[in-house]
Write a structure and sequence with these properties.
globular; 6% helix; single chain; four-stranded antiparallel sheet
Length: 270
């Protein structure tokens, strides 16, 4: 089951250290001025990323990044990490130093944009380090398609799977990479996630498939469930959303800030 939506990652903002992660249901206003924060801090040692955009009311609009924000992430030990905007992509902010989150810390973000302060906090979700063996549909003798090999439901864990497929070494002169997401929830109405036909993605035998698995906090899983349902029905989480989408962005932002343990495996498509 492939799920695509405009807002997919996590999200950030917070002031002061809190021992639990708080989610808030918020009705999405029909406005193009609401700040959307998107960030998943991970246990990978790297430059961490955060995206800032605005909600919009016209589906023909392009997503526009928000610039000139001041962003810091802090942990309980008093360490502080500054994020600066990318020189090549508006609204994408990168940590100025590489770091990895620790599972025994809570993480806080403080964000100021247009003289307004936004805050959020997150625990670090742990992940079971096990990825199912990939399964493929055989389109023809040299073409494959992802089959449903990741469970929709598991009472023992909730997880997000990012699948990166690369066949640039086979077809260097065409579109040759793709990214899709799958989800496993411990509480889900599967029927609500399948309102229409799912997009098909074909790729050649010999492609490299990299699967990264993210642990989900209960609050972030709730956000993803709502976001998946909204995006499948309305075409985008923050375009004309009909219900409420959980958020932990205070005081009046959208999106989610979270932190996660990750586990990655790489496969050759046969």
């Amino acid at each position: 089951m492939k799920i695509c939506f405009l807002y997919i990652s996590a999200i950030i903002v917070c002031l002061g250290f809190i021992s639990c992660e708080t989610g808030i249901d918020k009705t999405i206003p029909n406005s193009n001025k609401v700040l959307v924060v998107d960030c998943i801090l991970t246990t990978d040692l790297k430059q961490q990323e955060l995206r800032l955009t605005r909600s919009f009311s016209d589906q023909s609009q392009s997503i526009i990044g928000v610039s000139d924000a001041s962003i810091f992430v802090l942990n309980q030990a008093g360490q502080s990490y500054k994020f600066s905007e990318s020189l090549t992509e508006a609204g994408l902010y990168l940590s100025e130093e590489i770091f990895a989150v620790s599972t025994d810390e809570d993480y806080i973000m403080q964000l100021v944009v247009n003289d307004s302060l936004y805050t959020a906090n997150s625990l670090v979700a742990e992940v079971i380090k096990d990825i199912p063996e990939p399964q493929y549909q055989e389109v023809d003798s040299i073409t494959r398609r992802i089959a449903d090999f990741i469970p929709y439901y598991d009472e023992n864990e909730q997880a997000m799977y990012r699948l990166d497929i690369d066949w640039s070494h086979i077809m260097p002169d065409t579109t040759n990479t793709a990214r899709v997401y799958f989800y496993t929830f411990s509480d889900i109405d599967i029927g609500s996630l399948l309102p229409g036909e799912l997009e098909l993605l074909d790729f050649p035998v010999g492609s490299i498939l990299s699967i990264t698995k993210y642990g989900l906090t209960e609050e972030f899983a709730e956000f993803l469930r709502a976001a998946v349902i909204e995006s499948r029905w309305s075409g985008g989480v923050y375009f004309n959303a009909s219900g409420t989408i959980p958020t932990n962005i205070q005081p009046d932002g959208l999106g989610f800030f979270t932190a996660s343990t990750t586990f990655t495996q790489t496969f050759s498509v046969q």
